[in-house]
Design goal:
17 strands, Helix Hairpins, BirA Bifunctional Protein, domain 2, alpha+beta, 424 residues, eight-stranded mixed β-sheet, RNA-binding, 2 domains
RNA sequence: GGAGGGAUGUCUGAGCGGUUGAAAGAGCCGCACUCGAAAUGCGGUAGGCGGGCACAAACUCGCCUCGUGGGUUCGAAUCCCACUCCCUCCGCCA
């Protein structure tokens, strides 16, 4: 959510920014007009309230001196109350409309973000050499099924499309990846591990920006909870409504959770495999910091995510995501894309974003600076990594001619020293 | 599910119709003492919105806010209603 005062001061900047993010510039213009109207009415209503307060004060003063209450004074005050009620009704027309528009307005991109659609994403890093295969590389869903470690058919029977069972070494590999990532971030990168609720209320979903516009992307329970689409939601809202101390910043959290997404609107895309399932595991990094530090924290966050791929020996590239492909709430977004040999392309495995104060305003997360003033924090988060996609990338990049899959060295300790997954 | 208690500022915690936007303590900031620190003493310290000011800061005036929403009243932290959340006990249960 934006600060209405900032929009008032720089309407053109917001209009352009919102349009780059696919929002409506007309909404910004409407907001400015409504804001002007609101302040006019507010001045009137506040003057009336001040008058009423003065007369109530006068009644109180004369009571205190033991004088009897002046009927005329009371009647006048009552009349003021009626006038106030009328002007307040005008406010009640304007304010909900301002609120409605403001809450649905996307964040605006930081200056350094390339404009345009996905094709304008700017590569900033490329790491690792894609392996060369004698025969065409198999897709991970074939490898996994042939090894007996992934089962889509039975998942279809038990749940439906876009689900998977993992079995034996598959289930162990998934668990090993989660442990490996958590250990890396908590021991080497200084994050505090969190195990959050997997169901959240509507306020929390609003705080991070899933609501009001993207409710259909989440699974909702019959009694008003949402299954989290990412740990970002509960972990960012961990400090909602709080005023943190500057001395505590930055706060760095790390959380493994299952994530649930309805994938409404993704019909027909990535219907096979582990890339786009309704349920997947993810290790998420979340930071709370100051506006001075948030962009350097974004760089280190991105490095922390990249280090997972490097430790696992998976070739990847990092792109700055162009304005048209960015999410609703963020101001700058890096995507990490891992190499999938069977598809012969890099595909997203992590998204690292700086939300600046956008989420902090929605969730009301502030801090008291050393100077003593209260300001909104900047929030950041990034996947490090999406576990299901990492699992898939390992199968494809480490596949052997005999159908087995080598285990990346960094992971072997988590699999009791096992260096290969073969048909069992 | 049943019975009861509670929600106040950065935190703990008083207040229970009118100088209470709020006692006290802690924390934090400033100053004094000190070579420095600790300890001690003195002072300051809620948030939001709007006006004035050419922007901003500072300053200043006003409005709103004591879980949320509504009501009673000239006037509500204080009374009434609804809701949310937390705690205790009982029941049930992984």
């Amino acid at each position: 959510m934006h600060d209405l005062k900032e929009i008032r001061q720089q309407p053109e900047r917001f209009r352009r920014g919102v349009e780059k993010k696919g929002g409506s510039g007309a909404d910004v213009e409407r907001l400015v007009a409504l804001d002007t109207r609101r302040r006019e009415v507010l001045i009137r209503v506040e003057a009336l309230r001040a008058e009423r307060n003065r007369s109530s004060e006068a009644i109180a003063a004369s009571r205190r001196q033991g004088q009897s209450v002046d009927e005329a004074m009371q009647a006048a005050a009552r009349g003021l109350g009626e006038q106030i009620r009328q002007v307040e009704a005008e406010l009640a027309e304007v304010e909900p409309e301002i609120d409605r528009i403001l809450r649905a307005l996307p964040n605006i991109p930081n200056d350094d973000v390339p404009e345009g659609d996905e094709s304008q994403n700017r590569e900033v890093r490329r790491w690792g050499e894609p392996a060369v295969f004698d025969e065409p590389a198999k897709p991970h869903w074939e490898i996994g099924v042939e090894l007996g470690i992934v089962d889509f058919e039975r998942a279809g029977k038990v749940s439906g499309p876009r689900f998977a069972f993992l079995r034996a070494d598959g289930a162990r590999l998934e668990r090993a990846l989660i442990d490996f990532m958590l250990d890396l971030h908590t021991r080497k990168h200084g994050y505090t591990e969190i195990w959050p609720p997997l169901l959240v209320n509507a306020d929390s979903a609003f705080g991070t920006g899933q609501l009001p516009k993207f409710g259909q992307d989440m699974f909702q329970t019959t009694d008003g909870y949402y299954l989290i689409p990412t740990a970002e939601v509960p972990v960012t809202n961990l400090h909602s409504g709080e005023i943190l101390s500057a001395a505590d910043l930055p706060l760095r959290y790390c959380a493994y959770t299952p994530c649930f997404r309805s994938e409404a609107g993704a019909a027909g895309r990535d219907t096979r495999g582990l890339i786009r399932n309704h349920q997947f595991n993810k290790v998420e990094l979340v930071k709370f910091t100051t506006e001075e530090d948030s962009y350097s924290e974004l760089e280190s966050l991105r490095r922390d995510a990249e280090s997972v791929l490097e430790a696992l020996g998976l070739p990847y590239r990092t792109v700055v995501v162009a304005t048209g492909e960015m999410t609703f709430s963020n101001a700058r977004q890096y995507d990490l894309e891992v190499w999938f040999p069977a598809q012969n392309m890099y595909r997203e495995i992590s998204s690292c974003s700086n939300f600046e104060a956008f989420q902090a305003r929605r969730a009301n997360i502030r801090y008291r600076s050393e100077a003593g003033d209260v300001r909104h924090v900047h929030t950041l988060n990034g996947s490090a990594l999406a576990v299901g996609r990492t699992f898939a990338a390992i199968l494809e990049n480490y596949q052997q001619r005999d159908g087995s899959v080598m285990v990346p060295k960094a992971l072997r300790a988590y699999l009791g020293g096992q260096d290969r997954i073969a048909r069992g």
